[in-house]
Amino acid sequence: SDELTQPPSASVSPGQTARITCSGDALSKQYAFWYQQKAGQAPVLIIYKDKERPSGIPERFSASKSGTTVTLTISGVQAEDGADYYCQSTDTSGTYYVFGSGTKVTVL
Amino acid sequence: QITLKESGPTLVKATQTLTLTCTFSGFSLRSPAVGVGWIRQPPGKAPEWLALIYWDDDKRYSPSLKSRLTINKDSSKNQVVLTMTNMDPADTATYYCAYSFIVVDTNWFHPWGQGTLVTVSS
Fold first, then answer.
1. Tens of pLDDT along B37-81?
2. Which of A106, A108, B16, B112 is spaced 20 to 30 A from A73 at the CA atom?
3. Euclidean distance between CA atoms B26 and A80, whole angstroms
4. Are A45 and B46 a contacting pair at CB < 8 A?
């Protein structure tokens, strides 16, 4: 299956660490990407090629991969990190693009 | 600075054809490895990739929507046009276009346009 599965929600207190998983068979062969989407805004890329961070993205955002699961980690969560987070990859052949179901992060 | 902006009707009727235009600046669709993609997002749901066109006119479509989609580019106008036929209320969504650039063996979408909400009435 080319689907990407994420937990629907995660709650974290300010200063704590949030971890969001994304699972899918294609991830063992294809790169993962992560997007942050705040309410009413377009998604913004925060991680590319499994673990690389674009310029301008805070260091508290990091990611890793193990087998068919990728994990986005937000260290020292801040109130402004409350948003929806989506993983993205491709099908196993790398032909078309797939988004995960999304995880809503709530900062308590 | 790369910017993209979507334009088109905000309301269409079921069975009609939707035509959306993405007007961009800060890059050329004549440059190797460059592409523009379309992604939609129904209210409260995850994004769904629709189509992508590359500088060399290579076109990719979502397998589930391929029969309804057409993507074209006008590099001289810095525009990419997406058409979707036989619209249905289930196609109600915010439609985004986004810049894509091939790096070695992969590409991603960044940045995105602001999006345009399209509502399909029955």
1. 999 999 999 999 999 999 999 999 999 999 999 999 999 999 999
2. B112
3. 29
4. no
